[in-house]
Design goal:
The protein is mostly helical. The model has no long low-confidence stretch (mean pLDDT about 90).
Amino acid sequence: MELLHSLLLGFVQGLTEFLPVSSSGHLVIFSALYKFFTHKEMAAATSEEVFLDIILHLGTLIAVLFYFRKDVLNILKGLFTSVKTKDFNSKESKLGLFLILGTFFTLLVAYPLKDISEKLVSSPRIVCGLLLVTATVILLSEIIGAKIQKRDELTWKQAIMVGIAQGIAAFPGVSRSGMTISTGLFCGLTRVESARFSFLLSILIIAGTSIFYPILEIDFSVLKGFSWLSIFGGFVVSMISGYLCVKYFMAFLNKYSMKIFAYYCFFVGILGFLFFGFVK
């Protein structure tokens, strides 16, 4: 594996993991385009490539944990104190319970969709169609959300709705951050509060489905033959780009709407839908 290749993948992973543009959808589209123009597979799903994917996700996980480190520590302290006192009325402990509740409903929705979503990897035109769904949801959330009275605190019903939205994002082309933040807007949360809950909610999912579960697919007997410089380089780039993406995206949402990302998804989705329909 070449260093430049892993650095590029690390940058793309860090950039698209948190932006509402569907990183998995873009991977499917780029893979299909690469195969069309070169007649070669972009990825062969070797042990080294699977391991690199895990490491890149680990980089973005560390990035979001570092950015929200104060929130995470306060949540953990709040939950620990609440378990001791048996009083879960503090803001931090409630948020912790809401994150657990949201994650539960994510798995409840995403697990039955697992086989279907995996098959879509070979269907770039459908993925482009789902990118249009993402664009529509984002645009509607900005239009309708602006008319909904904002609430001061997150509720368990909102946590469940956002968790369900994250589960639906198991489909490539359906943006996880786009769906969760938009659902928060539909539920009366501000953009910043929606994004904050969305990113905190992503922690357990990234850790579970993108790191620990894929580890089971690794043949650890071949670790010695891996290009560790390339893997480490990709990890560092994904961590840095992921952190900067979260930081500036949160600042962006504090001033602007997500409509520009909706327009981008519309553009890529329509172009891809027409292109893959034509080449077939």
